[in-house]
Amino acid sequence: MKIVLLIILVLNISLLSKDLNPSLKEIESMPSSISKDYFIWRFLQEKKTTKKEALSAYRLIKRENSRLKKAIRKKVGYVPIKKKSSTKKRDSKNFIIYPSTAGKKRYRSLKKLRRLYRKIKKQGKYSDVLQVFTANSPFKELKKLPIKTQLYILNKTPSKYYKRYFNHPFTKKEVEKFSKERAFNKTIFKIVTTHKLQKAKKSLLFDSNVNNLDFESNFLLAMNAIEFKKINYAINFLTIARTKTDKQSQYDQVDFWLYLVTNYNGFLDRLMKSSQINIYTLRARDILKKSYPKVVRPILKDVKIKDFNITDPIDWEKIKIAMKKNPNELNELAERYKSAETVGVYSFLKEKASKYKTPYYPLPYPDAMKNFKTKRKAILYAIARQESRFVPASISTSYAVGMMQIMPFLIKSLTKKRHNKMDLNEIFDPRVAISYANQHMDYLTSWLYHPLFIAYAYNGGIGFTKNRLRRKHLFKKGRYEPYLSMELIDYRESREYGKKVLANYVIYLNLLGIPTKISPLLDILDKPSKTDRFRRK
């Protein structure tokens, strides 16, 4: 029986590799999408692809990225210029140097940077960036520039140089002017999530009944106020933040923090009524000693779906097109994919049809995990749900591929360790994806023992996670910990990803037969011996 299954799997993979390496004609017929771009990227790398074919394919891309540029440059020797929709002309007298580059050059040699500035001025050119970074006091010089230029420089300067040159307070008038600019949202993010910018952070303590800032900025201003123990400011910003969103998950985030700073149980009652499952609603239920909400775990029969290949990204793109065309018929569309093999697609459509008020937590492809320990199954399911909603043919904008959204360079590395050869397209087989993710998980769990930190590493990389864990201001003891640290992770994607995977993990442990509450997992985040090998014990 095992031999028969192995033969079937090998046949499926060989067919997959053949079917998913399309010709130029087949690429031309694909709908414009990231999936099409992915196949163009693969097509450009094939030895048999001619330069003429490569250029024709490149004209069809939807979104340029570094991978496509590298592939076309290698094939034809240059990157074709795409027509830009913008009619804005560049100022020929403006010497383009990025704040990150100027900051680095000043750090290494101020004399050389000033020499460069004198040289471009002799050429009749100017540079706002060099004007700032060659000054004796860059911050004072910055204030002489227009507001938009100030914010551009502040937002594009890396944290290392920001700490060195711009860690100074803004006046109330400056903050008021900044607040009218959209770019100030980025500045707030940089200041609040960067440690040791105390002077700049203190400037962000201000009264504001109404402002033009977005949800995240108001929320982060509340976190900043909490760090300075200015609770009234925090309550004010949290209240404003709640008016800046229509997302239930963000209402939950605000309500949880309002509970933390006021101890008013009315906010917990709000969280109990939420349709969302997240760390805030689960923790609220723990505090009130209430059971967790019921979730839908679809158990479907193994029915063959006609004209649909779960391993073909273009078939998945066609479903997404159908979703956009008929947004009110998602339940009917879901019924077409009511099968054990397509349970991911079915669950995704059903949850979307409910406007995410009914949570679906499928447990697909159990045969691929039958020999795994329960906690390993739970973390893999938790990650897969967040990465792809269990859609095997998923492709991200950065070309992370498959149900487990593994990056091509990592697939290559994992394949090499197996002493094996594998076409990248084979990862669209969900069972292959699970096998590779499990292999990667062996490495991650050798360093990290907590699902939150494992999630950070899966998303942002092990180096990113190590760096954050070794920062002494994060995941320490404190009244608002570990929640404050979780909100101050300075990479948005990993920050939100980690919180979602942690909630998923708790639900999946319960579904898999291990009764689990989220609170004990939150309570140990300041205890390195129980969470990771990177911090001092």
Write a structural description:
The chain has 537 residues and is mainly alpha-helical. It contains 31 helices and no strands. It has helices spanning 2-19, 24-28, 34-45, 51-58, 66-76, 99-108, 110-122, 128-133, 138-142, 147-156, 159-165, 172-178, 184-193, 198-202, 215-227, 231-242, 248-262, 266-273, 279-287, 313-325, 330-335, 343-353, 374-388, 408-417, 430-444, 451-460, 462-469, 483-487, 492-511, 518-523, 528-531. It is globular. The two termini are 49 Å apart.
In short:
The chain is mainly α. It is 57% helix and 0% strand.
Structural class: mainly alpha
Main sheet specs: none
Continuous helix count = 31
Distance between the termini: 49 Å
Shape: globular
Q: Which helices and strands, and how do they pair?
A:
Elements: H1 2-19, H2 24-28, H3 34-45, H4 51-58, H5 66-76, H6 99-108, H7 110-122, H8 128-133, H9 138-142, H10 147-156, H11 159-165, H12 172-178, H13 184-193, H14 198-202, H15 215-227, H16 231-242, H17 248-262, H18 266-273, H19 279-287, H20 313-325, H21 330-335, H22 343-353, H23 374-388, H24 408-417, H25 430-444, H26 451-460, H27 462-469, H28 483-487, H29 492-511, H30 518-523, H31 528-531
